[in-house]
Specification:
The protein is α/β, with parallel strands linked by helices. The protein is built from 11 helices and 16 strands.
């Protein structure tokens, strides 16, 4: 065929051709050769855009949020405390009174009230809920963000594939054995340009300096250090590509209209959610936005409402904004922490760690809005219906993101590791 040499020229290094590239070049060549009409080509291109790679936003609630004060209130039961329930846009579904804006977005949300785990330690549970695996001394498992960055690359995106917004705790897992290419790019404060991400000279002079560095490193490379030099050059080239890119404007929230900024609300988490949407628009595969402070062993009933006010409006605005921009269809939004809080209220008016039964909320990427999966008993002690384990949860993430959960990585010690070990996706969540 006339376009065969074109396709052959566009093969990747491993001899394969990415699906999007295949359609792009096949469609363009067919159009040029008169095989397709212009309307046929546009239809083909539109169909391929609908199948484009998925993206993911994780809203991470560091410390373990109380399910009783968020997604699974128990009004009238002594374990429920003073928290009342409010109606949502979905008939029969109620949320805690502290989430009025999210109640209006319930038709876009899927809530799992029956997540269950055995891990009640912050470090181990944080690792488990980020990777799907408990930590071991021999294998550093990659977090969901690193897996998504590796599995769903976007060649057109010049920004890091995994961006972490907010100050993370010491136990949040990074790229593990996937290596530095998929490590999270940290943005401690949304609304500020990333540190050390601006050149201090002209672009032309900056490029000349990079060329000079390559020349200086060549002698070192010849002295049996070729692999080390190549890794160093790869890192520098990726960094240079990023800081010279026009896409860096994604980090500048001042470019957003005041009406949009006001819709998300005030505070670091609000700015983080707005930044997440901008990064998704620019093609970043995975963004994690962190809110600390959920470890409410004391004063739960004063602290949790304050925390809910920080997430309610921004989370609701994020989901609505993504939907209105046509991004929610391909973007999975996850809200979760490492575990839930105890049904019984302790003497300090707090709730302690409770992994046996807690809640996770999802939206987008095929998640059926207005859905509630599972339930807990009257006192919130245990899962009463449709238990969802951590492996089930990660299978669900993979299904939404169109990632093969059984894909195997080979670790540096020669051990094959699946993205998810066991479990079944929660099929009821999908339309």
């Amino acid at each position: 065929m006339a376009w065969q040499p074109v396709i052959q020229a566009r093969l990747t290094r491993d001899g394969t051709c990415h699906r999007r590239q295949w359609f792009r070049y096949l469609g363009g060549a067919a159009l040029a050769g008169g095989v397709l009409g212009w309307s046929d080509f546009l239809s083909l291109h539109a169909a391929e855009l609908k199948k484009r790679n998925r993206q993911c936003i994780l809203l991470w609630m560091q410390g373990g949020p109380s399910q009783f004060e968020t997604w699974d209130p128990k009004p009238g039961h002594r374990n429920g405390g003073p928290t009342e329930a409010i109606s949502t846009r979905v008939p029969g579904v109620k949320l805690a009174e502290h989430l009025p804006q999210l109640a209006k977005q319930m038709h876009r949300l899927g809530v799992i009230r029956s997540v269950t785990s055995r891990e009640g330690s912050h470090p181990r549970a944080t690792s488990l809920m980020h990777t799907g695996y408990l930590p071991t001394p021999t294998v550093k498992y990659p977090s969901l963000g690193a897996v998504v960055a590796e599995q769903l690359p976007n060649p057109q995106c010049e920004l890091p594939p995994f961006v972490q917004v907010g100050r993370s705790g010491p136990n949040i897992t990074g790229s593990g054995f996937l290596g530095v290419d998929y490590s999270p790019f940290s943005v401690p404060q949304a609304g500020q340009m990333p540190e050390n991400a601006r050149i201090t000279t002209s672009a032309a002079r900056f490029r000349r300096r990079l060329e000079l560095m390559d020349q200086l490193e060549e002698d070192f490379a010849r002295e049996e250090a070729r692999q080390l030099v190549q890794a160093h050059r790869k890192l520098y080239r990726k960094t240079a590509r990023m800081i010279l890119s026009e896409q860096m404007r994604a980090f500048d929230l001042s470019q957003e209209p005041q009406s949009v900024q006001q819709a998300y609300g005030q505070g670091q988490f609000a700015r983080g959610c707005l930044l997440a949407r901008r990064l998704i628009e620019h093609g970043v595969p995975f963004v994690e936005v962190i809110l600390n402070g959920w470890d409410t062993h004391a004063d739960n009933f004063s602290r949790t409402p304050q925390l809910c006010r920080q997430i309610d409006r921004p989370f609701a605005a994020l989901v609505e904004d993504l939907d209105q921009r046509g991004l929610l269809e391909n973007t999975l939004v996850i809200w979760m922490g490492e575990f839930g809080r105890t049904p019984r209220i302790n003497p300090r008016s707090g709730r302690d760690h409770w992994p046996r039964a807690f809640s996770v909320a999802l939206a987008g990427a095929g998640i059926r809005g207005g859905t509630v999966i599972g339930s807990t008993d009257a006192g919130g002690f245990a899962v009463e219906d449709r238990p969802v384990g951590v492996a089930d949860l990660f299978r669900t993430f993979c299904k939404a993101l169109r990632i093969d959960a059984d894909h195997e990585y080979m670790t540096p010690i020669g051990r094959p590791i699946k993205i998810v070990d066991g479990g079944e996706a929660v099929e009821e969540l999908f339309a």
